[in-house]
Amino acid sequence: MRLLTVLIYFVACTTFEVHSQTFDYIKSCSRSDPDINSCVANSISHLRSRLINGIPELEIPAIDPLKIPRIQMENGSGRIRVKAVFTNLTIYGSSNHTLTGVRANIDNYQLELSAKAPRLVATGRYEVLGNVLVFNIRSKGDFQAVFEDASGLAKLYGKEVVVNNVKYMKIEHVGVDFKVGKARFKIRDHGSGTRVLSEAINNFLNQNWKEVLEEMKHTASAAIGKFVKQIINTALLKVPLHLWLTED
């Protein structure tokens, strides 16, 4: 989830002016800057304190805690074949991240970001339906997940678009990959046989968390990428390209 934070930072960094209002907390970058990677990294660092509570005028949400209304994941192959829906997600610890790498290809509107965070905590509601190993599973309730020593990589692929003769940038795809040093889960099933099922699921998740994350990584990455893409485009399509990426 720390990638969500870094990507939201990128949205704000690339937003320089909205409706003729200038924001002094935004540092723009020049196309001709020979060290464009450092410029983007410095812009992100400059925004850290402002983004904790969000930037309403850019429709950028608070990043710590970061609230996600709904994320859906579906894995149809492997040993864990499930459809999972998570709602009322709240992520804590996103602001305590370290940006470890930035690579920008301005000509092709591509950006690669890597980051790490010591600890992230996610809470919310879940509903899962499917098969784990040879067992059918159907469960819904509340959950908490703790991720330690998290690191990730995000790749953004954009393009230039023209709206009413004005140039903007639009993100076409967000690719996400991540690793976790350790994970712990705690769920509370609200269905029948609550205690027995909750204990069984908790034991399985905590004993096999590496396999669970590996099996679900592709679908989790796709869901996160979709969420971030929506936030980024909401901001970028309001701001003319020349306002955040200068030609000088």
From TrEMBL:
Pfam name, any one: JHBP
Keywords: Biological rhythms, Signal
GO term, biological process aspect, one: circadian rhythm
Secretion signal span: 1-20
Key word Signal present: yes
GO cellular component: extracellular space
SMART domains: JHBP
Keyword Repeat found: no
Similarity annotation: Belongs to the TO family.
Protein name: Uncharacterized protein
Organism: Polyplax serrata (Common mouse louse)
